[in-house]
Amino acid sequence: MNSRILARLALLLVLVAPLAASEQIKLKSGKVVKGRATSYDAEKKVLHFRTDDGKDMDYPLDQLDQRSVYLVHAGVIDKGNGKGQLQLANFARDAGLWEHAARRYGYAEQADPALKPEVERERAKGRGMAADFCLKSAKSALAKNDAKEAEKWLTILLERLPNEPQAVEASSLLDQHYAKGRNARDDELEKKHAALLQKDLKEGKMHYDRMIERTQQGLTARNTTKSASLWEGAIDDGKAVLKEIEKLEKKYPDDPKVQEGAVKYRELTIDQMVDAYLHLASQSLVKSSYKEAEKYTNAALALDPKNTAALSQRARIEEAANEGVLSWM
Length: 329
Fold this sequence. Notes:
Number of strands: 4
Distance between the termini: 19 Å
Number of helices: 14
Shape: elongated
């Protein structure tokens, strides 16, 4: 945590605090305190806070939930204050609140275009920090044999920070674990329906395997045009798989085992197609192509209306489009 940043933020906070509505902070213990911050002692790293009932409290920084500290400052620093937004962005970045940092850097540039060189220097530092965090989180997950969690962090790094040096190692790790993890999902299903896969679903299985391969290659391509082409190809493969499943259901309408298998294969295929659509949406969002990002996200939701990742993506797109700033650094 940068003490000078906090000190500057505290000064801004003191200047505008009389105009601020009641805020709340959360302690690491889970306790929530309502009131407003009055100052910050950078030397002692203590936040001074006046509660709604008039009590003056001192909270050491290491007792506070970092998001709460950020939100207190975010509530009192005007969007038109370029320097204030830049300092707030750096605070959010140093606290690991990457998306908040990206948004605040955007506000700083909008408020004062002259800050653009300084904003880009700080933003570049943030990209490096975020990439380190993603890679460290992925390695920690792999050490715990949590392939799904590792894939999440590696994917974030490759989608949103493809030009960072850490992306090379992330690409290598994803190559090692992506296909293995995805194929493991349907191992039991393949054993149970081996005969169908050899006969009625032979072509569908080919498209399914290629869909996984293309999705992985898109993530590790490190070329946006090539990545988009691979993900679109993966979606086409998914559509071909769904057609084969539909044929299977019509061919064996009275076979419960086949119908059960068809349902599960459809779920796996749709999951993979949704992933491809969301990769395309994330790529578009990074480029600030909001309408395109929304199109891909809506396509994912058309396949799975309750998909939490797609719903979260749509919210990020709407927020970024409304604010006119990047959702990632």
